[in-house]
Write a structure and sequence with these properties.
mainly alpha, disordered C terminus, 5% strand, 495 residues, Serine Threonine Protein Phosphatase 5, Tetratricopeptide repeat, 45% helix, disordered N terminus, two-stranded antiparallel sheet
Length: 495
């Protein structure tokens, strides 16, 4: 009997919060075990916590760094960086790597999807048994629908060419799985259109569970988070009308962080949650993102000099490129300045991270909605360049500590304004997992600055490296899995 890899995630994923089973060790875990786990409302609550942690593992594991390191805004410190990070940086991917990147993104992404599928399947049985918990269970359903949509969307960003690379989006996406597979199921890749249809359907299902609620805590999924993710998805599709619609809804309900709050929403998340729509609670734990940029440890990445030079001297965002050591960091670092990314700060020794330098990752924040809204109005039909420019002026004014009326944008055409929007997007969302994804969705070339330490200075669209290879282990386990064109280990159905 064939044990396909996606099934192994489905079996182990729900129990990840209590099991240390290896990825492929599925014999000791059966359906009855999962059913017993979901036998009461406490099991559902625990599964909800586990689902949150799988999302955190996905973003912290490789997804966030992949979204930026493939772009043009940072350098890898080749002496300090590990082999996996350098291969990511150099676009050195190969399917035979079954133990690390890019396998990790696939594994962790499907851990989210399958945890969500288990919550939806067994949660319905629980609802039938305990109808008095309908409201609470449906909240978990809403979270599961959102999480599955997020996972499928992000996996498409990694393992498929962008939505618009074929006219009808008929090229391969990923496996948009919406059920618990059996051992003998043959799981094939869906088209990008089918994947995005699943994502949109799930987000609308999640929205029905939450209703048109207001944001109360960005560490939890809300109806507003669903609308924000819909705005992002529609932008990636080139559906500018819906991207403008949903981003506008969010912008009307959640204000931008103020100038004097901006740095603090990254450095002190507990005291200043800022403009987050959905951010990942790190549970006061250390994260791998911190280690990448930690100047008091083995720093592996730093912002490119050419990129930092694009910011005005009085731009508050520049402060997030300078780390000043304090006594709690160690006597040798006190008072010293380091160039790094301060969106993910190291923990102070002897000081509770809960109160100081907690890194809760932003998945979605309001500034992105302004950028989506601007891009949609600039490129949609009909165009509204004035309104698009207004969005960018709001962001620049906040960054410079002034008012929008004092911001001047020099453009005469939609193309010129679009370039301004993309520059602002790059600066505002830098090191939050967006840059390479933006280059890719727009089907542009990667052109790195002269100072880059990468062995590959550029990537010309549509190079095969815009999409990651499907790992060889998955190909061997599933006869219906098809490799991306150009990579070794390519298979076709029936081979």
């Amino acid at each position: 009997m064939r044990k396909n890899i996606l099934l192994s995630i489905a079996v182990t994923g729900t129990l990840a919060i209590s099991s240390c089973s290896g990825f492929l060790n599925v014999d000791n875990l059966g359906k009855s075990t999962i059913e017993s786990f979901f036998s009461d409302i406490d099991g559902m609550k625990a599964a909800g916590v586990g689902l949150h942690k799988t999302i955190l593992n996905f973003y912290d594991g490789s997804y966030l760094r992949f979204g930026d390191i493939g772009g043009d805004t940072q350098n890898a410190l080749r002496v300090a960086s590990d082999e996996a990070l350098l291969r990511m940086y150099d676009f050195d991917y190969y399917a035979e790597d079954n133990g690390g990147f890019p396998y990790t993104i696939w594994k962790n992404g499907y851990a989210i999807a399958t945890n969500a599928n288990n919550i939806l399947y067994y949660g319905q049985k629980l609802l039938d048994k305990y109808p008095e918990y309908e409201s609470e269970i449906k909240t978990h359903f809403g979270y599961a629908y959102f999480a599955r949509a997020l996972a499928i969307f992000d996996l498409c960003n990694c393992y498929a060419m962008p939505y618009g690379s074929t006219a009808d989006a008929s090229h391969p996406g990923v496996v948009a799985i919406d059920y618990i597979p059996g051992f003998d199921d043959k799981l094939s890749r869906h088209t990008m259109k089918e994947c995005y249809d699943r994502v949109i359907k799930d987000l609308n299902s999640s929205l029905k569970c939450f209703g048109n609620d207001d944001l109360t805590n960005p560490n939890y999924i809300s109806g507003l988070a669903c609308e924000a993710l819909l705005a992002r998805v529609y932008l990636y599709m080139g559906d500018y009308a819906n991207a403008a619609k949903y981003s506008s809804i969010v912008m009307d309900k959640v204000p931008l962080a103020k100038h004097d709050e901006y740095v603090g929403m990254f450095r002190k998340a507990q005291e200043n949650p800022g403009e987050g729509i959905f951010r990942l609670n790190t549970y006061d734990n250390g994260t791998s993102m911190r280690s990448l940029y930690n100047p008091t440890g083995n720093q592996k990445l730093e912002p490119a000099l050419e990129f930092m030079a694009k910011f005005d001297e009085n731009d508050v965002r520049r402060e997030l490129f300078t780390f000043v050591g304090e006594k709690e960091d160690g006597e040798q670092y006190a008072g010293k300045q380091f160039t790094t990314v301060c969106k993910y700060l190291p923990v102070k020794t002897g000081v509770s991270d809960e109160k100081n330098r907690r890194s809760d990752f932003f998945v979605i924040r309001v500034s992105e909605m302004y950028l989506i809204h601007a891009e949609a109005l600039c490129n949609g039909q009909p165009q509204d360049l004035s309104a698009a420019a207004k969005d960018i002026k709001e962001l620049r004014a906040r960054a410079l500590g002034t008012v929008p009326d004092k911001i001047a944008l020099r453009y005469t055409t939609a193309k010129e304004l679009d370039l301004i929007i993309q520059e602002e997007r790059t600066k505002e969302l830098c090191f939050e997992g967006h840059r390479f994804m933006d280059i890719k969705r727009r089907m542009e070339n990667v052109t790195r600055p002269k100072s880059t330490t990468s062995n590959r200075k550029s990537l010309t669209w549509p190079d095969i490296h815009y999409a990651l290879p499907i790992c060889q282990l998955e190909l061997q386990a599933n006869d219906y899995m098809v490799q991306n064109e150009g990579y070794t280990g390519r298979k076709t159905i029936g081979e």
